[in-house]
Amino acid sequence: MSKLFHENKSIFLQIKERIEDQIVDGDLKEHDQIPSTTQMVQFYKVNHITISKGINLLVEEGIIYKKRGVGMFVAKGARDKLLNSRKDAFSVQYVLPMIQEADKLGLSEEEIVSAIKKVKECNDDES
Fold first, then answer.
1. Residue 1: pLDDT above 70?
2. pTM
């Protein structure tokens, strides 16, 4: 396995997420061409099928589209679609477990908000 990837998630999903990150960060904009499968195979040193699997998920989700014989491009509205999807996932992946743990600890809503603000301030100071 390439050292570019961690072992707790499938490589094709990590490749998919890296392309998504580039779109969310604005490095890839609507109708920009994404790197070819061959370029990604050479860069990531993984199997062609692995790359295609990640790419096909993005095509199925309407994040990228293919132009036959030309390449693959970022779809119109892809960034907004990804942001909305990630915001929905944020609540489930991060907020819900935090609230469940806070309930176990008997923390009030105000104490939770205070803890979040404190951590955010520390993080902002380090940036």
1. no
2. 0.78
